[in-house]
Amino acid sequence: xxxxxxxxxxxxxxxxxxxxxxxxxxxxxxxxxxxxxxxxxxxxxxxxxxxxxxxxxxxxxxxxxxxxxxxxxxxxxxxxx
Length: 81
Description:
By secondary structure, this protein is mainly alpha-helical. 46% of the residues lie in helices and 10% in strands. The chain is globular and about 40 Å long.
């Protein structure tokens, strides 16, 4: 399986789709959609351990479940968490 391709495709989707739209597509009844704000986390696209910077171009806003998924993919691609 091409985990690098899945990772890159996911990053593109996350960059181009607002958080609320991602939630709505997965579950239109998600309780977070009614909240005044939605908890998000920042994910390094290129890991700091591989030279990635804390620059906005290397950071992406993700939901906690998306963050876990990206780290699972990263483990498959780079062999690290």
